[in-house]
Design a protein that fits this description.
Elements lengths: L45 H10 L4 E3 L14 H10 L3 H6 L7 H5 L22 E4 L3 H13 L4 E4 L15 E4 L6 E7 L11 E7 L4 H11 L1 E2 L13 H5 L6 H4 L6 E7 L5 E4 L5 H7 L9 E8 L1 E2 L4 E10 L2 H20 L3 E6 L2 E9 L3 H7 L1 H6 L5 E10 L2 H8 L10 E8 H6 L1 H10 L5 E6 L19 E9 L7 H22 L17 H6 L3 H11 L20
Parallel strand pairs: 2-4, 3-4
Antiparallel strand pairs: 1-2, 5-6, 6-10, 7-11, 8-9, 8-10, 12-14, 12-15, 13-14, 13-17, 16-18, 17-18
Bound molecules: flavin-adenine dinucleotide and 2-acetamido-2-deoxy-beta-D-glucopyranose (9 copies).
One 2-acetamido-2-deoxy-beta-D-glucopyranose binds next to helix 10.
C-alpha cells in the first residue's frame, strides 16, 4: 500500500591486501576477510571455476542486470521484449538470477535500461558476477565451502526484494535460493530434540525459495492460515522471517518469526544443521530477528499454522484535506487514533497523501468493534475542509483478501525509506513534532508500512528490537529518483534519507528503533536503531557461529560491508 523501498550504490570493495588467513578455529574479531570479487587478483581462475561448476552439476550461471538482453553483448530482440513487458512485474523479477526489485540495488550508478539504444552501455552494477542456481542442499554446501576456502565476497539472494541492498553484491558470488521449492504440512509437529511429552502442533515446513502467495493458496486448500506478509512474491524463508515479518495477523499471532518452530541452515563450515529452542537456543534466537544473511543459508523454515478465521473485517478510510490547517488536523487525528484502533485489534497500512488513506483489517472483527475503533475517524469526517469516505466490509477468508488486495507495489523504482516504530507515548505526546517533520520533508512522501499492536507473547527467544513490544505503527518516509539522474543527485537523495533518520532521533530520542527490513539503508547508528540493547548479544553469537565472518550484508550483525550514501 505504501512507499516501499530500497536501493543504492557504491561499495568500497575490499582490496586483496593481505595474505590468505586461517579459516578455521576461533578468531578474535575483527577478522578481516579479503572478500575477493571479479576483477581482483585473488578471484579464482577459469579452470578453478569450471571445476567448481562441475562439482555442482553445472548450476553455476553468469548473472547479469535485467536489461542485459537489450544491449550489445547479450542482445536478443525477443528476450529484450520480454524484459520490456515485465519491467515492473514482481513475479518475473523474482524469477531472474540478476534482477532486483529496486533498480538502485541492481545497477548502483551504472546504466542498463530497456529504453536506451542497443549500443548504450550495460554495466554490471551491483549484480553478482556468478550465481549458484541451487537445486539441492549439497549445491549450497559446496558453494559455502568454496567461498570460504577461496575467500570470496559471498551474498545470498532469494527474491531480491531487500530494501537495504542486502542481496546485492558487486562482482560477488551469489547463492540463489529461488528454485528450492516445497511445502510440507504437518498435523502434529514436534521440534527435533524436544522433551518426550511435548505436544505436537499444526505446522508447515517451507523450502528456502517459497513465496507468500503460493503458500497462501496452498494453505487455503489445507484450511489453515500461516502468518505471512501483505505481499505476493516476498520470500517466506529468507529476509522476511530473519528480519521479523509483520502481517495482518500480527495482533493475534505476533510477528512471523514468533511463529517459527525450527529452521534448517547451512552454516559457515558448510554443515547442514537443525536449529530450534532445544538444539541451539542462542543460534535460533539470532536467526529470529537477527536479520539478513548474517547467520548462514537457511534451507527450510517450519512455521506454526493457525485456524482459518470465520471472516475478515476491513475498514477503508480516505480523508482529503484542503488547506494546511486541515491537513495538520487530519494527520494529528490519525496519529492519535492509531493507539486505540490497534489496541482494538486492527492492523493496517496507510499513506499521508492529500490527507490520509488507509486500510484496516481485523480477523473475526465485528461491527461493534468497528464502530468503537473508528469513532475518531467519524468525528474527523465532520471537520471543515475535510472530505471523507469511511467504508467497512467483510470478506469470508484470507485468500479472498489476497485476491482483492495484495499487490507488490513500487517494483522497478528506486524507492528507499527511513523509518521508526512509534510507541503510544510518541504518537500521543510527540504528534506535533512528527507533523512538523512531515511538512519539513515534502520531497519524501510519508506513510505507515505497517499499523498494528503486535502480540509479544512468543517474542521472548527472538532477536527483534524490543521496541516492537510497545509499538503501534511503523512510520516511513520514502525517497525516490529517476533512473537517469546523475550520480551527484542520487548521492544527495541518499543524504536526505540520513537527514530524515537524524530528525527521527531528535524527535524520538535514543530509545527509538525500527523494523530492519523496512529501514534506511544508510541508517547512521544502525546497530542501536535496528537491535537496541540486543546487538551485543547478537555480536557474541555471530563470533561463535561465524568466527571468520563469511556471511555479511549491508548493516547486518558483525558486517564490514557498509553501503555509504
Ligand atoms: C513488495 C514488497 C512487499 C513487502 N511486504 C512486507 C510485509 O507485508 N511485511 C514485512 O514484514 N515485510 C514486507 N516487505 C519487506 C520484506 O520483508 C523484505 O524486503 C525482505 O528482506 C525480503 O526478503 P526476501 O528473502 O524475499 O528477499 P532477498 O532480497 O532475496 O533477501 C533479503 C535478505 O535475506 C537474505 N536471505 C534471503 N534468503 C536467505 C536464506 N535462504 N538464508 C539466509 N539468508 C537469506 C539475503 O541475503 C538478504 O540479506 C515487503 C517488501 C516488498 C518488496
Ligand atoms: C556450468 O556448466 C553448465 C553445464 O555444463 C554450463 O551450461 C554453464 O554455462 C556453466 N557455467 C558457467 C558459468 O560457465
Ligand atoms: C516464473 O517462473 C515460474 C516457474 O518457472 C513460471 O511458472 C512463471 O510463469 C514465471 N513467471 C513469470 C512472470 O515469468
Ligand atoms: C476466528 O474465529 C474462528 C471461529 O470461531 C476461530 O477458530 C479462530 O481461531 C478465530 N481467529 C482469530 C484470528 O481470532
Ligand atoms: C479551508 O480552505 C480554505 C481554502 O484553502 C482556506 O482559506 C480556509 O482557511 C480553510 N479553513 C480551515 C478551517 O482550514
Ligand atoms: C456489519 O453490518 C453489515 C450491515 O448490517 C453486515 O452486512 C455485515 O455482515 C456486518 N459485519 C460483520 C462482521 O458482522
Ligand atoms: C480524494 O481525492 C482523490 C484524488 O483527487 C479522489 O479520487 C478521491 O475520490 C477523493 N476522496 C475523497 C474522500 O474526497
Ligand atoms: C458497514 O457497511 C454497511 C454497508 O456496506 C453499512 O450498512 C453498515 O452500517 C456499516 N457498519 C458500520 C459499523 O459502519
Ligand atoms: C505523555 O506524556 C505524559 C507527560 O510526560 C505522560 O504522563 C504520559 O504517560 C505520556 N503518554 C504516554 C501514552 O506515554
Ligand atoms: C528511460 O526510462 C527511465 C526509467 O527506467 C527514465 O528515467 C528515462 O527518462 C527514460 N528515458 C527515455 C529517453 O525515455
Amino acid at each position: 500500500m505504501v512507499p516501499k523501498v530500497a536501493v543504492i550504490f557504491f561499495i568500497g570493495l575490499i582490496l586483496c591486501h593481505r595474505p590468505n588467513a586461517h579459516h578455521h578455529g576461533p578468531w578474535s574479531p575483527p577478522y578481516e576477510r579479503r572478500r575477493c570479487a571479479f576483477g581482483n587478483n585473488c578471484w579464482p581462475d577459469h579452470a578453478t571455476w569450471t571445476a567448481f561448476n562441475d562439482s555442482i552439476s553445472g548450476r553455476l550461471v553468469r548473472s547479469f542486470p535485467s536489461a542485459a538482453r537489450c544491449h550489445e553483448a547479450q542482445y536478443d530482440e525477443q528476450l529484450c521484449q520480454i524484459v520490456r513487458d515485465n519491467w515492473d512485474n514482481s513475479f518475473w523479477r523474482t524469477n531472474q538470477t540478476g534482477a532486483y526489485s529496486a533498480i538502485l540495488w541492481e545497477l548502483g550508478n551504472d546504466r542498463c535500461f530497456i529504453n536506451s539504444s542497443v549500443s548504450a552501455p550495460c554495466g554490471q552494477g551491483l549484480v553478482p558476477y556468478y550465481s549458484v542456481a541451487a537445486q539441492e542442499v549439497s549445491d549450497i554446501q559446496a558453494a559455502v565451502r568454496f567461498a570460504n576456502y577461496k575467500d570470496l565476497y559471498l551474498v545470498v539472494k532469494n527474491t531480491g526484494h531487500s530494501h537495504l541492498g542486502r542481496s546485492s553484491g558487486k562482482n560477488a558470488l551469489s547463492i540463489w535460493t529461488h528454485n528450492l521449492k516445497g511445502k510440507q504440512w504437518h498435523d502434529s509437529f514436534v521440534p527435533v530434540g524436544a522433551p518426550r511429552d511435548t505436544q505436537g502442533q499444526g505446522a508447515v515446513t517451507l523450502q528456502a525459495g517459497e513465496q507468500w502467495l503460493d503458500v497462501y493458496e496452498a494453505a487455503a486448500e489445507q484450511g489453515v492460515i500461516v502468518v505471512g506478509g501483505n505481499a505476493r512474491t516476498v520470500g517466506t524463508s529468507g529476509g522476511y522471517v530473519t528480519g521479523g515479518g509483520h502481517s495482518a495477523w500480527a495482533n493475534k499471532y505476533g510477528l512471523a518469526t514468533d511463529n517459527l518452530l525450527e529452521v534448517t541452515i547451512v552454516t559457515a563450515t558448510g554443515d547442514h544443521e537443525i536449529l530450534n529452542t532445544f538444539t541451539d537456543p542462542g543460534y535460533f534466537y539470532a536467526v529470529r530477528g537477527g536479520g539478513g544473511s548474517a547467520w548462514g543459508v537457511i534451507i527450510s523454515v517450519t512455521y506454526k499454522t493457525h485456524p482459518n478465521p470465520s471472516h475478515l473485517q476491513l475498514g477503508l478510510v480516505q480523508f482529503n484535506a484542503t488547506g494546511s490547517s486541515a491537513v495538520r488536523t487530519v494527520q494529528s487525528a490519525v496519529m492519535k487514533s492509531l493507539v486505540d484502533i490497534t489496541s482494538a485489534g486492527y492492523t493496517g497500512y496507510g499513506v499521508f497523501d492529500q490527507g490520509f488513506s488507509g486500510i484496516f483489517i481485523q480477523p473475526n472483527g465485528t461491527n461493534e468493534t468497528f464502530v468503537e475503533a473508528f469513532a475518531p475517524f467519524y468525528q474527523l469526517s465532520t471537520y471543515p475542509n475535510v472530505s471523507a469516505v469511511i467504508g467497512n466490509f467483510t470478506l469470508p477468508s484470507w485468500i479472498d483478501y489476497c485476491d482483492a488486495f495484495l499487490t507488490d507495489p513500487n517494483i522497478g523504482t528506486n524507492i528507499q525509506d527511513a523509518s521508526r516504530l512509534l510507541t503510544a507515548d510518541i504518537l500521543l505526546n510527540k504528534t506535533d513534532d512528527l507533523i512538523d517533520m512531515i511538512s519539513d520533508f515534502p520531497d519524501a512522501p510519508s506513510g505507515f508500512n505497517f499499523i498494528g499492536k503486535v502480540n509479544p507473547t512468543n517474542r521472548a527467544n527472538t532477536a527483534v528490537n524490543s521496541v516492537w513490544d510497545f509499538s503501534h505503527a511503523l512510520l516511513s518516509f520514502g525517497i525516490d529518483w529517476a533512473d537517469d539522474e546523475p550520480a551527484h543527485v542520487k548521492t544527495e537523495r541518499k543524504q536526505r534519507l540520513v537527514e530524515i533518520s537524524r530528525r527521527f532521533d531528535a524527535v524520538i530520542g535514543p530509545d527509538g528503533g525500527t523494523y530492519i527490513n523496512e529501514a534506511n539503508p544508510y541508517e547512521p547508528e544502525w546497530q542501536r536503531v535496528f537491535w537496541g540493547d540486543k546487538y551485543e548479544t547478537l555480536l557474541k553469537i555471530k563470533h561463535r557461529v561465524d568466527p571468520t565472518n563469511l556471511f555479511v550484508c549491508n548493516r547486518c550483525v558483525g558486517t564490514d560491508i557498509i553501503f555509504e550514501p
